[in-house]
Each structure stands twice: as C-alpha cells, then as structure tokens.
Amino acid sequence: MNKILVTGSKGFIGKNLCLRLKEAKYEVLPIDIDNLNQLEGYIVKADFCIHLAGINRPLDPKEFYDGNANLTYRLIELIRKANKKLPIAFASSTQATLDNDYGKSKKMAEDYLLSFQKETGNPVYVYRFQNVFGKWCRPNYNSVVATFCYNIAHDLPIKVTDPSVTREFIYIDDICDTLVKLIESNGSGSESILSISPSYIKSIGEIADLIQSFKDSRTNLMLPCQGDEFVKKLYATYLSYLPEETGFAYPLNSHVDYRGSFTEFYRTDGYGQVSVNASKPGITKGNHYHHTKNEKFLVVKGTCSIKFRKIGDTKVYEYICSGDNLMVVDIPCGYTHSITNIGTEDSVTIMWASELFDPNKPDTIYEEV
Fold first, then answer.
1. What would the pLDDT profile of 268-298 be if each residue is shown by its tens digit?
2. What number does CATH give the domain 254-366?
3. By CB count within 10 A, which of 101, 172, 177, 243 is most buried?
4. Which entry of 26, 42, 102, 235 is annotated as an active-site residue?
5. CA-CA distances (angstroms) from residue 56 to 9, 15, 68, 172?
6. What global pTM score does this model have?
7. Is 200 a catalytic residue?
8. DSSP code of 122?
9. What's the CATH number of domain 3-207, 3.30.70.1350, 3.30.365.10, 3.20.20.140, 3.40.50.720?
C-alpha cells in the first residue's frame, strides 16, 4: 500500500489528508478538477483510493449528480477497465439518508460502490461524514465552525438564528487518523457503511460562545480548557483563522516599576496561572507566605537567590538558581519566601501559582524571611 490515489485532493479534507499521507511516507496520486485526465493512469498505479471529490454547493442542482454520482460511476468503470481490485474509501455524508439533491446524489454514489463491491469483491468503505471542522476549511461556505472562527477572528459579525439547534461534529485529524489506519490495515474490514469516532453533539450557541471566548482569552488571559477534547480541537481550529499579518501576536499588561516588571501570561480554570517576573540586579521581591496557595519558580535568565523560612522558626534555607542551569523550585505553604537577583544583569523568572490571584482573597501575608 505505497501509492494512494486521492480524489478531491485540493479540498479541505484532501489537503489535510494528503499532507498526513506524505508525512507517513506514502506516495500520493492527487486528483482534482484540473487533472481529471490523469485519473485512468493513476488508477493503474494506485494501491488504495480515497475518494473525496464531490459537489456540495452548485449553482445548478444537476451538478450534484455529475460531481457525486456520475464521477463515482466513472471511477468504478476505470477500475473495471484496469482489471484490478482497488480498495476504495468514499467520503459520503449523513445527508445520504435525506430527500434532497445533495443527499440523493451521495446515496447514488454509495449504491454504485456497494453494488460494485457485491459484484466483484472489490473492498469498499463508505464513511458518512457529519459536520467536519478543522484547519483550512473554507469560511462563509458550508461550515458553521469555519465561518464563526473566521468572522470572530477578523472582528466580523456572526449570525445565530437559533442557538439551541444542535449538530454533530467531527474533527479533521480524526478523519485523517481513521483513513491512515484503514490504509495501514490493507483495507481489511467487514463493514461497508462507517462513521468517524469520536463525534461531538454541540449546539450552535455553544459553538459561538466558545469561539468568542477564544478571542476574549487574549484580554482576560483565560486559557481554554485543553483537557476537554472538543474545546482543544475547536481552539486549534480557531487559531488557524487568525489574520496572518497582525493576528498572531498580542500584547500583555506588564506592571513595571524601578524593581523590574511582573506580567501575567495566562490563567486557567482550575490549574492556576503563569506569570513572568523580571528583576533588576540587587532587587528582592516576595517576603510573604501563603496558607493554601502554592507556587513554582523557574529562573530562566540571570542568577537568583530564593530563600525560605518556616513560619515560627528562625532557620533560613537558600537555593541559588540560574538560567544556565534550569531548576524548578517549589514554594510550600507556611514558608515565608523571597527571590533576590544576585547577578549583574536583569533576571527573568517564570512563576506558576496554584490559583488565580483574587484581590479580595489574596492569601498573601507579608513577613520578612
């Protein structure tokens, strides 16, 4: 299974899949509208066919049948002519069960393939895709996720007619994973009508709110929950729609004084926050303790002395940390602590705190080390 024929190679799914196949060291035989004349020659060479090509938004409904059903029939006839068995994975749609031209044309293509399988034993795998989302999907076309991501990232309005309406979504990388595994299995399998797992049932309102929260995270610094698989995939998708000229970078609010600066980097729901502390030579910060909040310090530039004293004791403990020898220092509860830049250049320390800073409940009590 070295040569993989991919129809619709320039489409959203096709671009992602072709890249993955090349990464996996397969030879890709790409077919799109501009090189359909190569289809017959590629069929002769191919070891596996991923049939993604199709029409979903034509000006004339007749194009549904030409681009979906008739193209599939042509593909089958060329495989017959080549007198070979060529495993085929076909990108159908859940709309194949609906009474509309798009759905009916996809169902016709499915029927052609399944009849071909029954007649010849040629392996066929029909995947009924739900709403697919991920990088490189065309916005303002037929994907609500792509449209919301693009518009919100570019400060354009979105339209939500009924936020309670739910849809089933699948992620582009899960499709690519599934198809690569199918190829690696040499097309062995017993079922013909298949679906992609996992899938996610979400309301349109929830999608819109999540994507808006991704945009807002640049100002409130709340990192989207990467422990939620859907949120992680949706956030990755949103980032791919940022405007390239100006959208990749954003400023942070630094608290600057004669000692240096302190800048919050990001905040999380349940996993604390990360900040960057910069100090001038000779400057000491801290001299306080916490009851429950704990921290981790990582000096990444310069040399610092981090000192501790247990509340109620007199013994002081010291750790010397340098950006030349990275070391994480835990800041336990019940120990007053300080950090001093003992070098000759500005120091930079990454600081993680176990909870978000709350000025009404700071859990920070001043006491000299």
1. 999 999 999 999 999 999 999 999 999 999 9
2. 2.60.120.10
3. 172
4. 102
5. 15, 17, 9, 18
6. 0.93
7. no
8. -
9. 3.40.50.720
